[in-house]
Amino acid sequence: MPGAPPPAAVEFAWDRSINALAEIGTHRLDLYAASLKSELGRYEMMPSIVARQESVRALLGAMPDPAAGLLQTVNTYLDAVNHEAGSVAVDVIDQHGLVIAASNWNRPESFVGTNVSYRPYFQDALAHGAGRFFGIGTNTGMPGLYFASAVRDAGGPIGVTAVKVSVDALESAWRTPGEASMVIDANGVIVISTIPAWKFTALRPITAEQQHRIQASRQYAGRSVEALPYRRLDDWGTSAWFARFPDWAHPGHERRYLAMSRTAPQAGDSILVLLDIAGARHQQQIALAFVTGAFLIVGLYCLYAIQRRRAIAEKLKAQDTLRSANDRLEITVRERTAALTQANERMRQEIVERTRAEQLLRDSQQEVVHAGKLAVLGQMAAGLTHELNQPLVAIKTLCENAVTFFERNQPAPAIGNLQRISRLVDSMAVLTSELKTFARKPDFERVAVSLNEAVTHAVLIYEARIRDEHVQLDVLIPAGTTICAEPSQLQQVIVNLLGNALDAVAGQTERIISIEASRNEQPGRVLFSVSDSGPGIAPEVLSHLFEPFVTTKPRGHGLGLGLAITSRLVNGFGARIFAANRPDGGAQFTIEFSETTAQETANGR
Ligand code: ADP
């Protein structure tokens, strides 16, 4: 914000204006003094000229009884002189103060017959030869300047001549707007004034003695002289001062003026000029407004410059902040990108490793499955040998008998033997084909498989053992139950469970194996179970039954892979396997399969 304008600039404007005004005042005083001198000087000598007039002297000499003709001559003379000079009136006064002749002898305002001995101009003229004063005509009531001169003869003064001059012309010539000009007499009373209301007011207190004298001389037509409410303020240089006067333009108000005065050409009087300082104040206000405006502009410009500089600084700071934020961001992005790249790389390697591990696992799983199969095959080998040996022995016996029957020419029993041989071969073929299917590496295509068919094929594998060991096998599977599985794997699962059940019941007095299936409460699920009347699952293996190489069987009889393979295959079908000991003895293995729909069944085997 710009501060207050320095007073010096405004003071300068003020000084300049007041100095200019003072210069005008000086001119006015010069002019008014000159005009006063020339105007009044014209009349100053007039009374003494009139006093030298023979008829006037004769008239005064003839007093108190002059001839009527002489009086008329003097009156006429005075009227002519008055007219010629442009004065108000010219009077001839005898030595007692009685007006005996006058220019206006024939008019009502005439002083003829009036005694003016109390008038100072008369007294001064009589005493000193000449007199002069400002006064108001007692008859006319008009203010004017009186000049008087004594009329003498050899014996001394015999009378006085007086000339009254109007100051109206002066006043109107001096009247200038914004100014008041006046002449102040020796009493301090304003006798000439361009402000009519101020005339015959005093600029200084009138003492009682002065008041008395004024009253006695009737100088101001008997009026009491009031003081003009005026206050002198501070000086301006040596010739001027400020003063508070009534505002002539606005009665009832006061106003400050620049006052200047000088002594008037006539002794004891002075001329006073009052100059309205409104113009100077106006100049001062203009200067103030200009300075204020200039300061405001400068201030605004400074403000603008400061704001601009601040805005630029802030902009630069913001740019810096943005740049460093960008840099930080770039660094962070670079770091994060590097971390991400590393993480990606690690993840990629992990994926590769996992893929490799999965592949390895799959391979080894398949290998394990295959190995399990081979193990089962190994176990089955003895049984198979026995199984195949029996029909082979039977076939050999039947062949030999058939040859004997043909030699005896008994074709019918021979043909019967051949037919039995053919059936035995068929059953052997079935055995071997099942073995082939089992040994094949699994594929993973899941289809709808009939549970009954899968169980039948599995049972076929153990048919001889079931029969030889006198095991009671109860199969209770609702017709048409199909589940979602890979057929050969499903067969292997059932073979494993059935094999374990046969192992469990072996040596038991009661040897019962139940294979059952039922629909679960949950729609679309089938519960398949293999239960036996064996001793049940040993408690030490129950919790980790499905882990590889967990077995309670003697060396050479069990690898502990059967249930591990079974569990993985079952999981591969999207099914789940559970093992538990039944409350009434024996073990029970349950698989929860997904049931396939009729449509899937149609597409399946
Ligand atoms: P293995 O038959 O070679 O031992 P498995 O994985 O098939 O391997 O079986 C692991 C073990 O589970 C068996 O050794 C046995 O202790 C137990 N087991 C499996 N089935 C039965 C069952 N039906 N009754 C009692 N125990 C069983």
UniProtKB/TrEMBL annotation:
Gene3D superfamilies: 1.10.287.130, 6.10.250.3020, Histidine kinase-like ATPase, C-terminal domain (3.30.565.10), PAS domain (3.30.450.20). Residues 383-597 form the Histidine kinase domain. Pfam families: HATPase_c. It catalyses: ATP + protein L-histidine = ADP + protein N-phospho-L-histidine. The keyword Transmembrane applies. It is a multi-pass membrane protein. InterPro entries: HATPase_C_sf, HATPase_dom, His_kinase_dom, HisK_dim/P_dom, HisK_dim/P_sf, Sensor-like_sf, Sig_transdc_His_kin-like_C, Sig_transdc_His_kinase_DctB. Keywords: ATP-binding, Cell membrane, Kinase, Membrane, Nucleotide-binding, Phosphoprotein, Transferase, Transmembrane, Transmembrane helix, Two-component regulatory system. This is histidine kinase. SUPFAM superfamilies: ATPase domain of HSP90 chaperone/DNA topoisomerase II/histidine kinase, Homodimeric domain of signal transducing histidine kinase, Sensory domain-like. One of its GO terms (molecular function) is ATP binding. It is found in: Cell membrane. SMART domains: HATPase_c (SM00387), HisKA (SM00388). The chain crosses the membrane at residues 286-306. It comes from the Bacteria. The keyword rRNA-binding does not apply. Its main location: membrane.
